[in-house]
Amino acid sequence: MFASKDIFLKSSGGYQISRSVRLRSSASAYFNRTPASAGNRRTWTWSGWVKLGVLGTDRVLFSATNGTTFDQLRYSSSDNSLQLGLNNGTYNINTSALFRDPSSWYHVLFYCDTTNATSTERMQIWVNGVRQAVTAAVYPTLNYDTYINSTNAHQIGRVGTSGYFDGYLTEINFIDGQALTPSSFGETNTVTGVWQPKKYTGTYGTNGFYLNFSDNSGVTATTIGKDYSGNGNNWTPNNISVTAGVTYDSMIDSPTVSSVSSNYAVLNPIWGNSNPPAFSNANLTASPSGSGYNNAISTIAMPSTGYWYAEFTATANVPFGGGNNNSIGLTLATRASLSGSDYIGKYSDTYGYLDGGGLYNNNTASQTVASYATNDVIMVAFGNGKLWWGKNGTWLGTGSPNPATATSPAFSGLSGDYFFALTTYNSPYGGTWAINFGQRPFTYTPPTGFVALNTQNLPTPTISNGATVMAATTYTGTGSALTIANTVGSASFQPDLVWVKGRSGATDHAWYDAVRGVQKQLESNNTGAETTETTGLTAFGSTGFTVGALAQMNTSAATYVAWQWNAGGSTVTNTSGSISSQVRANATAGFSVVTYTGTGANATVGHGLSVAPKMIIVKNRDNSAGDWAVYHASLTSASYYIKLNLTAAQVSSATYWNSTAPTSTVFTVGTNGDVNQSTQKIVAYCFAAVAGYSAFGSYTGNGSTDGPFVFTNFRPRWVMIKRTDAIASWYVYDTSRATYNTTNAWLQPDTAAAENSATTWEFDLLSNGFKVRNSGAFSNASGGTYIYVAFAEVPFRYANAR
Question: Rounded to two decimals, what is the model's pTM?
Answer without folding.
Answer: 0.96
